[in-house]
Design goal:
single chain, mainly beta, 4-stranded antiparallel beta sheet, 10 strands, about 0% helix
Length: about 100
């Protein structure tokens, strides 16, 4: 069974047992949570259910595996001919989740 879900304004193609890297979710490591925003489900190659925009009464059960920070990126502000330069960094937080079950 394949599904497309929406987390943090991004869409992911998943199936049971997948581990995906998503924007930080507000749950502790080891906790399970529901993802109600299911856009599409395909039980086999011939039948596809599409949502408008989401499929009602369908949810994905996921488990938080890790919470980490990404590599640092450097951001540079610069104005030509004004002797203005500013450099700072940013580390985006993310979570790795495992898809436990797809319930319809």
């Amino acid at each position: 069974m394949i599904s497309i879900i929406s987390i943090g304004n991004k869409n992911y193609l998943i199936k049971k047992g997948d581990r995906i890297k998503v924007e930080k979710v507000p749950y502790e490591v080891g906790k399970t949570f529901d993802i109600p925003d299911v856009l599409m489900i395909s039980k086999d190659d011939k039948s596809v259910i599409l949502g408008k925009p989401y499929i009602p009464k369908t949810k994905i059960i996921a488990k938080v595996i890790e919470q980490k920070k990404d590599d640092k990126i450097k951001v540079l502000k610069y104005k030509a001919k004004k002797r203005y330069r500013k450099v700072f960094g940013h580390r985006q937080r993310y979570s790795i989740i495992e898809i436990m079950d797809i319930k319809q």
